Amino acid sequence: xxxxxxxxxxxxxxxxxxxxxxxxxxxxxxxxxxxxxxxxxxxxxxxxxxxxxxxxxxxxxxxxxxxxxxxxxxxxxxxxxxxxxxxxxxxxxxxxxxxxxxxxxxxxxxxxxxxxxxxxxxxxxxxxxxxxxxxxxxxxxxxxxxxxxxxxxxxxxxxxxxxxxxxxxxxxxxxxxxxxxxxxxxxxxxxxxxxxxxxxxxxxxxxxxx
Length: 210
Prior knowledge:
globular
């Protein structure tokens, strides 16, 4: 249960489905309810597939490129910290590339966007992918892997609920409410990133000292 809570909390904080709600509302404002629900489901399924593939194949990418776990954790920690600062300062959309003019023009022309940009890079971004690759290196037992996959599935289910209820959430919380919660989540994300970096630096220093 401890592992499940840890993976769920870390992944949920990095993915931040609440922060994607305003983007989802903006992209689906011309769709009917059935189409929005379909987009919510497809987006969540895409995120689940991407994260599970990253979790199970990431170690082979590390081996191929000769990247150590500590190096990955530091790189992932830096990405997570920058994402956290983007949430904390209210520049998350810009951090994800959503303010780029070409991206906005592309979004305006898209009929379907459950894969891009909602699944990638808004939800399953570099931070969540690097986090799962690092977790795969730490938890090798079958039971631990199944728990991790269960946590990923739960995060994706929660993401689906957030997206499906996005219009209701916007009505209840409003822009200021979503912004406030996103900033709180941003602080948690920064703490997770700093923990990743500090633990990896300590591990490297111990190796050098020996």
